[in-house]
Amino acid sequence: MQNLATDAGYDPIALATATEKVVVDGNRRKYVQLGRPLRFYGGTTSATEVGCNLRCKFCFSDKPVWKPKATGKFYTPQQVFDGLVKTAKKHGHNLISASASEGTLGREHLHELLALVEQSEYIYILETNGMTLGADEEFAKSLAKYKRLHVRVSIKGTSPEEYHKLTGAKPDSYRLPFLGLRHLIYAGVSCNACVMISFSDDEGIKNVKRMLADTHPGILKSLELEEITLFPKVAERLKREGLRPITARRIRSKLYGRNTKG
User: What CATH fold (topology level) applies to the domain 12-199?
Assistant: First the structure.
């Protein structure tokens, strides 16, 4: 894959296009697995996608993000849906999703998968960083026909500068998830915002809340403030990058030599 980095950072939209060439083949997309139970949302079944258009230094995902060419296998929407349903039935879940990468890569695959969900008893949680939805209003509008869909837009940090520090992406692309949320809301798509705040101070959190309120005041009602989990590989990567979280989901970090919020 070509090197998209510049002195100012890489372009997430260009990286999305390049990544799709690796992880998308027609209506097929790469996955590592097609259904595992997770505790989120009170219990959900999730597949593990391959391929992302951000390189977050705090990301828990490993090979699916950093080595997409050598990771996973291609599956059709029907195969993914069947895999999710099999595990969801086993665990009594009515929520299904895909995670560990970017959910909007491979639009044909996504639309066919959502069409299958639409004819089922399940609700699909689309996990996204919102970049492609912010860059393409028509893409966001195209999701409005799916009534068994909820879109969770994850914002990385509380300012363009913090976002650039944490992801390496161009600071001006920080605006895209806010635009994505606006596009989704005006199209009538069920959605909510999530902000990663492990590296943010109180003023930063107030700032991002103001930005979200300017996007649409009602979105603050469902806002999630998320903290990273210091898995060993995450902690090692952050240490190499010289990044120290203020809060994290681990009781003790040997690498940082201090307690972190559990």
Answer: TIM Barrel (3.20.20)
